[in-house]
Specification:
heterodimer; A: 224 residues; alpha+beta; 60s Ribosomal Protein L30, Chain: A; Alpha-Beta Plaits; 6-stranded mixed β-sheet; 4-stranded antiparallel β-sheet; 7 helices; globular; B: 292 residues; mainly alpha; 2-methylcitrate dehydratase PrpD; 64% helix; 1% strand
Chain lengths: 224, 292
Amino acid sequence: MVSILDIIGPVMVGPSSSHTAGACRLGLLARNLVGGTPQKAHVELHGSFARTGEGHGTDKAIVGGFLGFRPDDDRLRTALEIAAGEGLAYTFSKTKLGEENEVHPNTVRITVERDGNTSVMLGSSLGAGRILVSEIDGYPVEVHANHDTIVLVAEDIRGSIARITTLLAEDGVNIATIRVSRRQRGGDAFMVIEVDEPPGDVVRDHIKELPWVRWAVTLDRLTS
Amino acid sequence: MYSSLAAAIQDAESRGLRLSAVALEAESRDNGRSVADIRQVLGRALAVMRQAVARGSAGDLRSASGLVGGDAAKLREGPAGPLSGTPFREVLMRALAVQEVNAAMGVIVAAPTAGGAGVLPAVLTGLADAQGLDDERLIDALATAGLIGAIIAERASLSGAEGGCQAETGAAAGMAAGAAVEMLGGTPSQCGHAVALAQQGTLGLVCDPLGGLVELPCVFRNATGSAIALAAIEMALAGIEFAIPADEVIDTMGQIGREMDVRYRETAGGGLAATPTGRRLARERLYQLKKH
């Protein structure tokens, strides 16, 4: 479902909503995955991102996202220079992530590393600044960042979903959507929960500390 | 949100409302935000649009490559043409102004995209200022434009990489035409005809930027896209009806986009980008960019 405010927006630094603003949002989400500015990042550009990214400032926008700059931040223009001062070492390469009709033309695979944690994300810029993250650390997901989103990996045990949803409800957080996937029965379960209000620090920490939760991250809502 | 313009028009007309009213109602219902809150966000977008028009018309901006900039000022101060002193020339000037700001990595509102960001501010503020309409009317118009854009996003595409320029400046022309017809007192049905009339005129339009930069022909496509929107507005308000419904024209745009060769979808592999001059300029300018 598309929102009017997605169409009349975002307010952004030019020149391209898919190659600049959307790319910046993908960088911001990757930053979220490791909880701050990564020390190392590798960016693999596919399709139109690879062919015309340079002219659109896609590199500046993604690195700006790593640094926590939003799409309307003037500093995107000079993000590559700022990255050096922030201790962020980045590399870019061009790649083919699949056939033209299978993979969205503006797709990127981002590997980020911070304090020994590494995360890999596959995401696409759909146009008009809208994005879709389709894979995190090998798990298929569907994150649009139109909601605050909780992503977690848990042991596949009975009652895990009920426990999480109860914790959120007790914190007054309403769930918009929830998706659960797993690689195999008894393997890790991957949950993507879109919520209407940002969950508080207490409930975030509580979820992370559950003994059967291996990894959890909260991705910020990225709309105007 | 509505998935067809026909449903929105029917809903509005059966209840004696304007399209902007049902659009704001649907947006509020979908996202749990008050109409006042949504209008406030649209008001901020309008302010950024006006700033971009003002910034770009000064004439001192150049894009990173130097390929575009300063042409809005020529329409403002340059030699007169047959349309000098009319809203038509003012709208063209504003479209170039916003797009020159965008190409210079300035702040704009991507509505629906950055590459097509000149059309809505040019057509809407240009016509509103010519008629002395206030910002509340413009905010309503932005809501209607957003509704039309949401339907295009759902049924077709708003990405040049997916659907060519018909999905960017073409979609923007459709959004601006429908929104302006409401702003100028047209009925919801007339808005629908305006969308169809504008979009039929941009079907098949390719996305062929030199060197992949959102500069050339993008800046000028915003001006010509605005001109198509003005034509559609004039025809729809005169009572002209387009026989193919807007939803089907939008679906056709999506279909053409899916069948469009990848060279014509923002890859700089075809069209003007692949002309001898286009290739030469891209080579020279991108080389210059890398030296910085």
